[in-house]
## 1
Amino acid sequence: MNRPPFRKSKERPENLPVCSAVVLCAAVRHGGTTLDLVAVRAGFHVEVLPTPVDPFFVYYQLSCAEGKFAIDARFYKSGASRAIAKSKKQTVRLADNLDVQIGWTKMPYFLLRSTGEYDMVVFANGYDGGRSHVLVR
């Protein structure tokens, strides 16, 4: 599988968080000390193309870094360098390398124009922090 050429001209800085979870879901419910991810999905089944994709959430878990980071999520056709959809940026702060922060961001409505392999990528300061493979059939 080809990966998009993110920030190819620059080396990835050492102090960027690792994104150890990228999960697509219909809703995130916060219940005190727990989170419920509702209608988790690994892909999309389409009857007709193009097909609209309603807004959904991307849950992520960040760790192994220290500082303040601009986080956003982007949906790509595998191998493409241009995102089909992009979330708004959020700021996440990690106190130290042992800190773990969880969060979620909302993806906007967009159109899927073809079936195949896609990537849901979480970015930290504009660099690929972690991804999830998404299959559209």
Note: The mean pLDDT is 89.
## 2
Amino acid sequence: MKKLLLAVVLAMLLCLVAMPVMAEETVPVKPFEFKFSGGTDVMYLLKQHKFVAGVGVDIARIYDLVNIRGQYVSDFKGESKDLIGGGVGLDVVKVVEKLGGEWMLRNITASVGISCLVDLRTKPELEPALYATIIKLF
């Protein structure tokens, strides 16, 4: 499990480092930018092997590709679980555009990533999760 999370984090870092920069295409890019946007999240809890849903807010962006995200999710089945945490993910639309593609679904913006959550109602225990944001609300 730890090896999988480490592999995902290293792959994301490798994508950032491996992007070529051409001198004739230089545009002033802010390496770190505070930008708030929110959307609906669907998460897969890796320890419990189940799906949960909630909302998340992008707090910051790194090189316009990586989102730092705060999240609040609740269980589908109505159990008294309130999970809160943070995560790091890739903006799929921006990655496709950086690779030379064109994102056809303009109203749907997607991002995927990993997060770490804590249940607020029980003892504090870290819960790793994979998340997907499909529709951004603001």
Note: Residues 17-27 have pLDDT under 50 and may be disordered.
## 3
Amino acid sequence: MFTTAKANSLLNDVFKGSPEGSSGGDLVYIGLSSTEPTEDGSNFTEPTASNATGYHRGEIGSKMGNANNRQIQNTSVCYMSLLRTDLGSVGYFGLFTTKTGGVPFFCGPLTTEINLSVDAEQAYWNSDVEGMGNIVAH
């Protein structure tokens, strides 16, 4: 088991921009999936990212607060782009070190499934209300 100080440090590194294998200070992006990802990050079914759909991964590092007591959460709303077409429902998120492509280094279920439609102003996550909620390191 990690000490609380080490767990907090690791959460800050990963979610605020220095995931393992990166050069440090890299941006962290959130993507959405309609299917449950496997432990190796595969089976992550992301909507097609393009100007035609309006879907693109959102940067989250600057939206995250400091880890405290083995938990980290966003301190401001994490907005994604406005949609130009209906993309269906998503129930999972993944964190990436790249804006496009690649495999997520962390995945989990959304607190509430989101219907990505043109009618929705923006897809977003705000602490425990919708989306990621608290990320806990054990």
Note: Strands lie at 29-33, 58-59, 71-72, 78-79, 88-96, 106-116, 124-125, 135-136.
